[in-house]
Amino acid sequence: MTHDYTESSPVVQTTHGKVRGTLLKGIYEDPFYAFDGIPYAVPPLGTLRFKEPHDLKPWHGIRDCSKPSDKCLQVSSYTKLVEGSEDCLYLNVSAKTLVGEPMPVMVYIHGGAFKGGDSSRHAWGPDYLMKEDIVYISIGHRLGPLGFLSFADPSLEVPGNAGLKDIILALQWIKANAANFNGDPDRITIFGHSSGSMIVQLLLASPRSEGLFHKAILLAGVSMEVNRMPQVEFRLAKHLGYEGENIDSQVLDFLLKADPQLLVSADFFTPLEKAQGHIMPFRPSVECYGTPNAVLLAEPIDLQRTSWSNRIPIILGANSGEGLTTINFLQMNPSWLKAFQQNPERVLPWTLRCRCDPGQRRQLGQALIHHFCQVHGHELTLDHTNALVDLYNHAFVHAIDRLIQSRLTYSQAATYLYRFDFDSPDFNFYRIRFMGKEQRGVTHVDELGYIFVLPATFKLDKSRPEYTAICRMVDMFVQFAATSDPNGPLTKPLVEWKPVIRFGKRLALNISEELKCVPQPEMPKLKFFDRLYEMAGVPLF
Fold this sequence. Notes:
By secondary structure, the protein is of the alpha/beta class. The protein is 32% helix and 16% strand. It has 16 helices and 16 strands. The strands form 3 sheets. It has an 11-stranded mixed sheet with strand order 3-4-8-10-9-11-12-13-14-15-16, with helices on both faces. It has a 3-stranded mixed sheet with strand order 1-2-5, with no helix packed on it. The chain has a two-stranded antiparallel ribbon with strand order 6-7. The mean pLDDT is 95.
């Protein structure tokens, strides 16, 4: 379809005022319109720090939205410096065209362990998606303590999950404004990666998000429990010099006055906690008391059984080498091996670690190491690295399996399972960045190079299989966003991707140089994880 691109800086009327965008060209010269840094909430500054977001008053005149705004304040994973701003409640809209047939809307929630990441096209350029007729929107939201701190005292009005409430307010804005950007407000797909995928899962579970989207794609991030650590607010304050008691109102008062740069860079985990693998002090939580905007009043596992989202289709999956990050840690820091030898419980999924006593944790951790490595924990050597990678791979897939089991039991809608397995020598940017070119495999984040233009992306020759893989990924996701069925014109002749079924073989779409539906290769060893949950008395779904 040809579109008219005569307007180089279009103006669009939104519910809150006019915005001016810009005409851009993607990496393959495909034109599209971009409106970056549209505010959707009052800046959460001063006394609004940690509070739920407030709707914006309309503005007068035309707001320039030709450049991305700052990411949320965070410690950069690249530079290790504090970057971004507390004023970060903005979203970015890219539209293939502003006239004609209303297009499906795809809304992206970035990853970054709930404490980092960037929603802008600097980090995740939508160029490949903009070959298709869609509206792509990404949401900036609060991270780390700014987004996920919580206090049990209701008078303080910080029940937690401010970062999730940011996203819900943004989704309300998107629903109200989709049509202004030629989007279809009745075909909104949310998708996220890693912690962003976990956020998508929490929105699927939460009654608060009903009707705000119509399908979802979860890329490599699922957890049926939130597993939040206790007292992190008090520990953060103490780390920054607070000398009082653990009284909510006094701790909050201290943190409201704290330097925001120090807030987000505070590292208060003990060496033992680090050895146990703790990296996310602030994350979504079950809110201690109900409010009109509460997102999670129970664990996702409980909410999911009766959730409205059991009526909508989802795609979910992960990469074939998610566990490879383990190698990275072992190579960078051989003392990690000692951490496994001394703390066998560190191989357990977080849910089991949080819900077992120390003796049972140790026992289950030993059993898991023995099952995968065929030795006792204290006998582990670097020769067992591949077995540990396999263990972590399976743990990752098992988390996804629990959500699939829940969907197969309680849902009436399709659940499509994929396994991304494209092992490129030069286009799997995260593996190359963290492990060098010698290491092969498909690690965490590698799939995003086939959906977005990353800072490391280069223009592929169209004859390369990586280019074909990008076209197929985009085709399936856009097809799903448009029709709820991911089998599009490009892939349907090659393979029919069917939803998972309750009985019979568990099939996944394996995405490599070729597309193939295969029996899920991890399936046989997942039963061992089921047994560990049973021994711990923790329900699977």
